[in-house]
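retry 2 of 3: previous attempt timed out while embedding S-adenosylmethionine. Reduced batch size to 1 and resubmitted. Inputs unchanged:
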Amino acid sequence: MTPHTAVGHQPDQRTLVSVMVDARRRLLAAGVEAADREARWLIWHALGLTGSSPLVDSARPLDRYELAKVDAYVARRALREPLQYILGTQEFCGLEFDVNPAVLIPRPETELLVQEVIRRLPRGGCPTLVDVGTGSGCVAVTLARALPSARIYATDLSVQALETAKRNALRHGVDSAICWLEGDLLASLAGGACDVAVTAIVANPPYIRESEWSGLQPEVSGYEPRMALVAGATGTELHERLLNEAASFLAPGGLLAMELGQGQSADLRAKIETMPVYASVEILPDEAGIDRIVIVERVR
Ligand SMILES: C[S@@+](CC[C@H](N)C(=O)[O-])C[C@H]1O[C@@H](n2cnc3c(N)ncnc32)[C@H](O)[C@@H]1O
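retry 2 succeeded.
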């Protein structure tokens, strides 16, 4: 005797739970560590659900369009495309930023850079700030949200990155507070684009050594923009150039704050100590105890 099947629910139809199990298995086989959590996020994204969506019935069958989407997202992640590029978003300092392969995915370490700069700025007044290598715009936009009276310049060599950053600024209602400039480090500020002395220059420059690139996680070396990550043979090339170039833009007492890579603080400190234009140097560790931020003050 043939068993009865409920109308509209085929015996081979795949339910949310079976799709979840399959996605998790594929991600684990591809070497994705947080396979459980990421499978859920990819499926939620494919189904248009959010964290605040009501509980979903795990026996809910998925239609063919939903299955096709889930399959495409899981296949991309199994090729080690970063989850953030698939979801199209990353949180930074409590704000959501659009991300795509033209921009670095904002990292939690960079939140410390932004917080420390905000903490050191004099209260009141209208500071002039520069975000060098703005990428997704996460630093410039966070500064603009936290300091509504600031005048902010954001530079990048990449036109596509600047376009993404502008979209993020619009999304967070601060586009009109930021002046976007395409160019090499601070070059685009010269010649009159910025005619006031700068209160603070903030940068998360590329700081990976050339030799480290091939050993990075596949998510990074296969998908994130190389020009956002690799500096040169030592990794500190852009920090050193910024140290040389920043002094002529900074107001007396102005700050240059930069993120740095593991093992780079001693050489940078030694370099800064040879530069009489900088009065003090502070190096701050991140949560893992790695020296992560360097802050120097221009002599008064
Ligand atoms: C490490 S990413 C930082 C992006 C963003 N500020 C963040 O913290 O997520 C470095 C950024 O600097 C840009 N960049 C690289 N070399 C540059 C240069 N010489 N002048 C200006 N921008 C540069 C890259 O395009 C990239 O957007």
